[in-house]
Design goal:
The complex is a heterodimer of chains A (about 375) and B (about 475). Helix content of chain A is about 30%, strand content about 25%. Chain A is α+β, with helices and mostly antiparallel strands and about 375 residues long. In chain A, a hairpin with a 4-residue loop joins β4 and β5. Chain B contains 16 helices and 20 strands. In chain B, the strands form five sheets. A seven-stranded antiparallel β-sheet of chain B has the order 15-12-14-13-18-20-16, with helices on both faces. A five-stranded antiparallel β-sheet of chain B has the order 5-6-10-8-9. In chain B, about 35% of the residues lie in helices and about 20% in strands. The chains are: A alpha+beta (about 375), B alpha+beta (about 475). Chains A and B meet through β7, β8, α6, β10 and α8 of A and β9, α7, α8, α10 and α16 of B.
Chain lengths: ~375, ~475
């Protein structure tokens, strides 16, 4: 039974840590909230006594242009970071769906990524420091503000994609990237979906890999190339696809179906698993990564089958947003990982009373 | 303290009589890694299988005996040193490699040598990107435990960016798979936290790594600079121009002299410093990038620019770089190779601080390092036969690290903390930060049998000479 929670919106990390400790001491369940863009992800909260908003922490702490490093508070929006970086000709290669409005803390906690993962990897590859408020009120940092660092355990990894189950991210530092010398988008409209998969496979065999490559259930393939002018032009002419407008990516990042799921499998399995979706399914895929997002029609039967196929391919199907009854029936995450007991040990080490996001994640 | 005969017998039953070493003379071979400090293990166990590793750790857990996993022993922070005695668990017999050319991955055992993996992968047109300078000897297991780097990590990322999954044995002897081939696995990223945990959370028995396609075109350029400062400015200028080369390495005057005398690679011995720059990709982009880089270097006092014309010439330039530490033996028989990282823009300051510290201690210092990352490697050169030299060497190293930290840097970029730097951890991490790490340690290894005495400040071995002198406890001032 969920009653209306108390809403807290601290404006400093210290205050946030204090609120978190107070909640923990009184046994209140805390749900951290950033931009609310991933509110549908995960299981329904078992309890929510305090909604802890991070959006009061919205500053750029430091942007060192020369070092290509930026440190920000967790509640800042991705758009605000990009605006700051753009002034120096730099950017953070995160382009999540359901944009705009993501906070960086939310993106880290959920681990959402977008098409540029093809070239830059996920935040796992360019997050270099993190600061987290723990339920006992401590503020713990890991990593630092340099681009290479092996000093102590890499605790950043535990919070990235950890759904706020171990602590509340209050700040983060990133390695950022120079805007590409040349940025070209091309597309190919295919008559059949098989033709589209083949086209995408060809693009992934080019000597200069696309920076992003997306395939849509209507047969369209969209590719983006970063690099030197000559190199990009050669790739574009080898492919022979038609030039498209860069705004295609902005439109794509606004994709936010009412009910949708993320299918993640080894990339060599993606085509096969996606081909098993119901006829007429609406989806888009990143063939070079092994991820697809599927906008399904409300009900749960098809999703059950797709999840079984994804898990049989050693992958997963996670609900990004769904009707409450569907989430309740299917579970948000699917079969628990074999290492759940280990994860639970870590959860207990950080949140022994289980007050953080109870019910939302697998631990 | 020697192990009880019954324990040695238990170990022999697991791996076979010949694969347990416990004679005083033979143990000496396993006393050290490539760092300064050593300590004898009580026994060395040569494991051949995951089952061996698990069974040995079970025995150790039962008797509360420390276990230290060990690869080639090339580590530079004491990660493989059995500082509390116990069992050195040697995994170099575990060296199978399976390449999956379609998925572009390799499944390797921990004893596989880094360069061997790339050699095997090359027949499929693939390579393994992290390339520590010790790659001819160091093992992938050690690389994963230490989260090793290398020159080409500037563009490609360090070990953790290339490890997809691992089979690990925990402190209770249980075997688990963490991570895997597919992106965005459900749950906490255990693989991510175990990579770089320096043998303190698990022993690694298999590693699944990502392989990359060998780029069709590579361009390698050597450029001389009048001073180390001008070379540092050139490094920042290249990056500021939006160019991230595959590698961007610096060697100072001292290093260049030693390297040239040894390798005759055509390094300019009159230079204050040289940069070795490499870009790779398709021909169109390497040409354009190299053109842009040449321009930046020349604008920043670069001279005698020389691009490798053949792959043999390229190999020779790299042999000089990767063999630089060995070549320094021409100057002094011993070296202490340090590792710290500063924000790239602070390179001129840190290098001048390093120079001053060397002068103060009257010790020659040679710099050879990953400039593009701001990852410094000052080599303090000395002769162990000189009376009382070691405390001087350690003092100088400690001051250099202190300077790194004061410039907003990190204690280690790729060598790890181990024994070498655990006393300095409070310089960069607050008690709360360290407490968070300790919770993870306890969650995995409550009894502390896996590689004890590493990473965390060790109350049994206090030796921070500088603490208090400069008013320390920098408490995460970077926030």
């Amino acid at each position: 039974m969920v009653t209306a929670p108390v809403v807290e919106k601290p404006s400093t990390a210290e205050e946030l840590a204090r609120r978190l400790r107070e909640a923990a001491e009184s046994g209140s369940a805390v749900v951290p909230v950033g931009g609310g863009k991933a509110a549908g992800m995960g299981g329904p909260p078992l309890r929510c006594d305090v909604e802890l908003q991070t959006t009061g922490l919205d500053r750029v702490l430091e942007h060192s242009q020369a070092d290509m490093v930026v440190s920000v508070e967790a509640g800042i929006t991705l758009e605000a970071i990009q605006a700051e970086l753009a002034r120096a000709g730099q950017f953070l290669p995160l382009d999540p769906f359901n944009s705009p409005g993501h906070t960086i803390g939310g993106l880290l906690a959920t681990g959402w990524t977008g098409p540029l993962r093809q070239r830059f990897g996920s935040a796992r590859d360019f997050l270099i420091g993190i600061r987290v408020a723990l339920p006992d009120g401590r503020l713990a940092s890991a990593g630092g503000r340099v681009v290479k660092n092996v000093s102590g355990y890499d605790l950043m990894k535990l919070h990235l994609g950890g759904m706020g189950s171990l602590g509340v991210i209050v700040a983060a530092s990133f390695k950022v990237f120079p805007r590409p010398l040349h940025d070209v988008t091309v597309e190919k409209l295919n008559d059949s979906i098989d033709e589209a998969w083949d086209a995408a496979a060809r693009a992934l065999e080019l000597p200069l890999l696309p920076a992003a490559l997306e395939l849509f259930s209507d047969g369209r393939v969209l590719a983006r190339f970063f690099g030197s002018t000559d190199a990009v032009n050669r790739m574009v002419s080898e492919l022979g696809w038609i030039q498209a407008d860069l705004s295609a990516w902005g439109d794509h990042s606004r994709s936010a179906p009412e009910s949708w799921a993320r299918i993640a499998v080894p990339r060599s399995e993606l085509r096969r698993v996606i081909s098993g979706l119901p006829p007429g399914a609406h989806w888009w895929a990143s063939p070079g990564i092994g991820i697809a997002h599927w906008s399904f029609d409300g009900g749960s039967e098809d999703v059950r089958g797709a999840r079984a196929a994804a898990e049989a391919a050693h992958g997963s199907l996670v609900l990004m947003a769904a009707r409450p009854d569907v989430t309740a029936t299917l579970g948000a995450w699917g079969t628990p990982p074999a290492t759940l007991e280990l994860m639970t040990r870590i959860k207990r080490a950080f949140d022994p009373a289980g007050i953080l996001n109870p019910g939302r994640f697998v631990v | 303290m020697a192990l009880a005969p019954s324990v040695v017998e238990e170990l022999r039953r697991i791996v076979g009589r010949e694969s347990v070493i416990d004679s005083a003379n033979d143990l000496r071979i396993f006393e050290r890694d490539a760092s300064i400090e050593g300590a004898l293990p009580d026994a060395v166990v040569l494991a051949s299988t995951t089952a061996h590793v698990a069974a040995v750790i079970k025995v150790a857990a039962k008797h509360h005996i420390p276990v230290v996993p060990r690869g080639a022993g090339t580590g530079l922070s004491g990660g493989a040193v059995t500082i509390r005695g116990g069992i050195a668990l040697q995994v170099t017999r575990m060296r199978r490699v399976e390449i999956d050319p379609v998925a572009q991955t390799a499944l390797v055992e921990p004893g596989v040598v880094n360069q061997e993996l790339s050699l095997v992968a090359a027949s499929h047109g693939l390579f393994y990107a992290p390339d520590p300078s010790s790659q001819k000897a160091c093992t992938i297991g050690g690389n994963a435990a230490e989260n090793s780097g290398g020159p080409h990590c500037l563009y490609y990322g360090v070990t953790t960016n290339h490890v997809l999954g691992m089979e690990v044995v925990l402190a209770d002897g249980s075997i688990h798979w963490v991570g895997g081939d597919e992106p965005d696995r459900i749950g906490l990223d255990l693989c991510g936290v175990l990579v770089g945990s320096e043998g303190t959370l698990c022993a690694i028995t298999k590693i699944k790594v990502r392989l990359l396609r060998i780029p069709p075109s590579v361009a390698t350029l050597l450029a001389a600079f009048p001073t180390i400062e001008s070379a540092s400015h050139a490094v920042s200028a290249v990056i500021a121009r939006g160019i991230v080369p595959a590698a961007l390495e610096m060697m100072d005057h001292v290093t260049v002299g030693a390297v040239e005398a040894h390798y005759h690679a055509g390094y300019p011995t009159d230079a204050g410093a040289v940069l070795l720059v490499e870009v790779d990709g398709i021909a169109e982009s390497t040409q354009e990038l190299m053109g842009a880089i040449r321009k930046v270097l020349e604008e920043n006092e670069g001279y005698a620019l020389r691009e490798a014309q053949t792959s043999a010439e390229r190999d020779l330039l790299w042999a000089g770089r990767k063999g630089a530490i060995g070549a320094l033996g021409r100057i002094k028989p011993n070296y202490y190779l340090h590792d710290g990282v500063v924000p790239r823009s602070r390179l001129p300051q840190i290098l001048s601080a390093v120079g001053e510290i060397g002068e103060h201690y009257k010790l020659p210092v040679a710099n050879v390092f990953h400039a593009g990352d701001g990852n410094l490697h000052p080599n303090i050169l000395f002769d162990l036969r000189d009376r009382d030299v070691l405390p001087q060497v350690e003092g100088a190293g400690e001051e250099m690290l202190r300077a790194v930290v004061e410039l907003g840097g990190a204690l280690s970029g790729e060598h790890g903390i181990g024994l070498e730097k655990n006393a300095f951890m409070p310089w960069v991490y607050s008690p709360d930060d360290l407490d968070a790490m300790q919770r993870v340690k306890n969650a995995f290894d409550e009894d502390g049998i896996l590689n004890p005495g590493k990473i965390f400040p060790d109350p049994l071995r206090k030796h921070v000479h500088l603490a208090g002198r400069t008013g320390l406890a920098v408490e995460a001032k970077w926030w």
